[in-house]
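Q: My labmate handed me this sequence with no annotations at all. I'd like to see what the chain might look like in three dimensions before we decide whether it's worth expressing. Could you predict it?
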Amino acid sequence: MPPSHPRPEDLDELGAAMSAVAEHAAAVGEHLLDHMVTVGDHTAQSAVDGTIDAAIDTLREIGASSREIALGPAARGPLATGTTRAEESVHAPRVRPLR
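A: Here is what I predict for the chain of 99 residues:
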């Protein structure tokens, strides 16, 4: 059974993993753009372009969400100076609970 509250080292690992996900999503999006194919038929090319655009948009959203998640644990974890209180300017985004 997982602990009732996360350990600081778990938060650091989560932040590092989410940062890696964000970097990988950005790299895959660039790789997809570099290998975009050209088809002779206009209708087929429109379909290919739309699919690639949707995939790249999805990868960008995954990257952005991963960066936001990576910032959350970093703001709550202990600072390098040994203090346990994060600065006022660095905080996790506020989220309204669902009803």
